[in-house]
Design brief:
768 residues, alpha/beta, eight-stranded mixed beta sheet, seven-stranded parallel beta sheet, 19 helices, 24% helix, Peptidase_S8/S53_dom
């Protein structure tokens, strides 16, 4: 009886612990950095623990509830609290704010050539020594250190300022780091406690900096991967792989796991990265927009910016919906996604001899069976999701040996192919819906397959309805470069205006993010599916996650060439030299129409010009505080972001008519307003004795006047100011909101290279 009694007691204890754990939630507690009781404790950790000791009602060890103690990104800690404990802690005068932990999500062989980077012909790479000496911190899913993209041959010594470490863990030792991959850490406490209460741990992951997913390996190599000759994805996209800053060092901060990326883990990584000594932080992750004072990435990045660190973030993959852009804080560089002029054609030849254009990275040229004509089948009806090729929805008797048509959506693109294969299907045509339109993100499918656009899907449906036995085959065309217009805006790239701060145009710019080939771990097949037994060193991915590290790497090049520049100066260089035209000299397109500023911001990154911008718009931390005052933020909200006591009444009184010295213009006319005056300052980072003249393309319905019309610089680092008057030409209808756009460019009269361009966005807003 005694063993049974012990078993029952153990089960009861486990049940009590589980119930207790389910009542706890992770919160990020932000404290006043000059808290009254702080000096009474021997360490910051003991001070943070004291709040839990006073809050937890039972005899439980307070340290068991503490997840992280923060000091650099914010002053505070992350801990698990019950509703009663939360209410008690909120009453403390030393607590600024308490935020629940948020779950966020993670949003190359050719792209460097597409951007004009040349390893032999001078320009940005040679001027920056390929990013030599710069350190890029990547917050993502970890890294596969054995990838050839992280080989350190030819790399310089680790910078003396580096204070990071190579954290050991499962299948990861200190010897996995080198002069390229100089640091690696992992942060899992927020993920771990959230996963215990939300879902069983059925996914095997490395409890270490090692990458289980591939996303982090891909983004890190895009930013700063070493030169890898003869790289390809099963023969597709063959060429020499290089990151944007192949001479830069990489530090990995693993914050994303199977259940997502938790803000407590992200903040802990930013907290450590600031102390480690990174120069650039690259975050290909985010969520939906929230006010800046509630956004842990925005708060952590403000502190990083104060330490001279450029923070580059993905804009999000929720396009083309307006107001969907994430990571909107003005001290963050927010990056949307664009296309390349590289295609992977996989043409569908129908039984009636007509052709439908599609794309795929399936290595069809090597597989004889891939070129067979097959019977087409498209299953609809029922509630199992057969039109989307959901698991368990495809009867083997109906699909065996056939080419299956699958609608895009609900489950993953490559996953649909695996489901078709398991059901006995021989091939797949993946069709875009009205949501995806003509977007062409390709995959390395596990069976012969192609993706066709929405327009082509209508032709496919018409053909299938016209005959009793529709048939088709896929003709794989390999890799084609330079035959299509590019860059263009990716359909999925999140759009502005900014939800929380419409006075700042977001996204800031776009960069390559569609069908990007970069490093891949050896524990996964190129499709990323667990069933895929193929192994490759590189694969293809799409998303603003891929655009972000392009910009991060270019920021590292600029930092290496100009190590004393502020993050604002680096972002200004990226924005004012961006391209508004594609490689054919025509406007960048968004689908079938010219792109609006809420899709492209300042335009498409151009590293060759960004390394030498001529003039820059600089911003100091105090300027951001004044800007936050103009948003109507309260003293406590601004303190939560900046750790500075401010009187907005005094600040705004001293800075009448203030406008942040941003490299773009976002002008909002509310009902009854007819004119706006905006002041800007430009600093000469080019040659002395330079004269710049202004050129304006005025937005429709607006007169634009600039005074002075010439900026005459006698010295390098000299700063001159100008004012812009925006005057309405005519009244707009009441109760409507509409937009117009233009641009303002300062042109160096001594050379045609320096053109410092700023987009102008004008909004007519109805009275709220």
């Amino acid at each position: 009886m005694v063993p049974k009694t012990r078993l029952l007691f153990s089960i009861l204890l486990l049940y009590i612990l589980c119930v207790h754990a389910q009542n706890l939630q992770t919160y990020i507690v932000q404290l006043h950095p000059q808290g009254l009781t702080k000096s009474s404790f021997s360490s910051r950790l003991h001070w943070h623990l004291s709040f839990l000791e006073k809050t937890i009602s039972n005899n439980e060890d307070s340290s068991s509830r503490l997840l992280y103690s923060y000091s650099s990104a914010i002053e505070g800690f992350a801990a698990q609290l019950s509703p009663v404990e939360l209410e008690t802690l909120q009453k403390s005068h030393e607590v600024i704010s308490i935020r629940p932990d948020r779950r966020l999500d993670i949003y190359t062989t050719y792209s460097y050539k597409f951007l004009g980077l040349n390893p032999t012909g001078g320009g940005a790479w040679l001027n920056s020594r390929f990013g030599r000496g710069a350190i890029i911190g990547v917050l993502d899913t970890g890294v596969w250190p054995e990838s050839p993209s992280f080989d350190d041959q030819g790399m310089p010594p680790i910078p003396q300022k580096w204070r990071g470490t190579c954290q050991e863990g499962q299948d990861f030792s200190a010897s996995n780091c080198n002069r390229k991959l100089i640091g690696a850490r992992f942060f899992s406490k927020g993920h771990r406690v959230a996963s215990l209460s939300s879902s069983p741990d059925i996914v095997s992951e490395y409890v270490s900096p090692r990458d289980s997913h591939g996303h982090g390996t891909h983004t890190a190599s895009t930013a700063a991967g070493a030169r890898v000759p003869m790289a390809s994805v099963l023969g597709n996209g063959a060429g020499e792989a290089r990151g944007m800053a192949p001479g830069a060092h990489v530090a990995i901060y693993k914050v994303c796991w199977f259940s997502g990326c938790y803000s407590s883990d992200i903040l802990a990584a930013m907290d450590v990265a600031i102390r480690d000594g990174v120069d650039v932080l690259s975050l290909s992750l985010g969520g939906f927009p929230v006010p800046i004072y509630e956004d842990t990435i925005a708060i952590g990045s403000f502190r990083a910016m104060e330490h001279g660190i450029s923070v580059i973030c993905a804009a999000g993959n929720n396009g083309p919906i307006q107001y969907s852009v994430a990571n909107e804080a003005p001290w963050i560089a927010t990056i949307g996604a664009s296309t390349l002029d590289r295609r992977f054609p996989a043409i569908v030849q129908l039984g009636n001899r007509k052709f439908l254009y599609g794309e795929s990275m399936y290595p069809g040229n090597r597989v004889q069976s891939a070129r067979k004509e097959l019977e087409l089948v498209y299953l609809t009806g029922g509630n199992q999701g057969s039109e989307f090729c959901m698991r368990g929805s495809l009867p083997k008797a109906k699909v065996r040996g056939k080419m299956v048509v699958c609608k895009r959506g609900v489950n993953g693109r490559a996953e649909k192919g695996q489901i078709v294969k398991e059901a006995g299907g021989a091939a797949m045509i993946l069709v875009n819906t009205e949501i995806n339109l003509e977007e062409d993100s390709v995959d390395v499918h596990v069976l012969p397959a192609t993706l066709i656009g929405f327009d082509e899907s209508i032709h496919l449906e018409s053909y299938m309805n016209s005959t009793r036995r529709p048939r088709a085959k896929i003709i794989f065309g390999g890799t084609v470069i330079g035959k299509s217009r590019a860059p263009a805006v990716a359909q999925f790239s999140s759009r502005g205006p900014s939800f929380t701060d419409p006075a700042i145009l977001k996204p800031d710019m776009i960069a390559p993010g569609v069908n990007i080939i970069a490093a891949w771990p050896q524990n996964l097949g190129p499709s990323g599916l667990p069933e895929d037994s193929r192994r490759v060193n590189f694969t293809v991915m799409s998303g603003t996650s891929m655009a972000c590290p392009h910009a991060s790497g270019i920021a590292a090049l600029i930092h290496s060439a100009h190590p004393k520049w502020t993050p604002a100066a680096i972002k200004s260089a990226l924005m004012t030299t961006a391209d508004m035209m594609d490689h054919l000299g025509k406007p960048i397109m968004d689908g079938d129409k010219p792109a609006e500023l809420f899709a492209i911001g300042a335009g498409h990154v151009n590293p060759e010009r960004a390394i030498n911008p001529g003039l820059i718009y600089n911003i100091q931390p105090n300027d951001y505080i004044t800007h936050l005052c103009t948003l109507g933020y309260t003293r406590s909200e601004i303190f939560a972001i900046t750790h500075r006591n401010t009187s907005c009444h005094d600040i705004l009184h001293q800075n009448r008519g203030f406008s942040l010295n941003y490299p773009s213009f976002s002008v909002i006319f509310r009902q009854g307003e007819t004119r706006k005056i905006i002041k800007r300052r430009l600093t000469n980072v080019g040659s002395p004795n330079s004269i710049y003249s202004v050129e304006v393309v005025a937005p429709e319905g607006v007169n634009v006047r600039v005074i002075p019309q010439h900026l005459i610089y006698k010295h390098t680092n000299q700063t001159l100011s100008y004012r812009v008057w925006f005057i309405l030409r005519k009244r707009t209808r009441n109760g409507t909101t509409r937009y117009a756009q233009g641009r303002l460019t300062w042109v160096n009269r001594g050379n045609s290279f320096h053109r410092v361009q700023s987009p102008i966005s004008v909004t007519w807003a109805s009275k709220k």
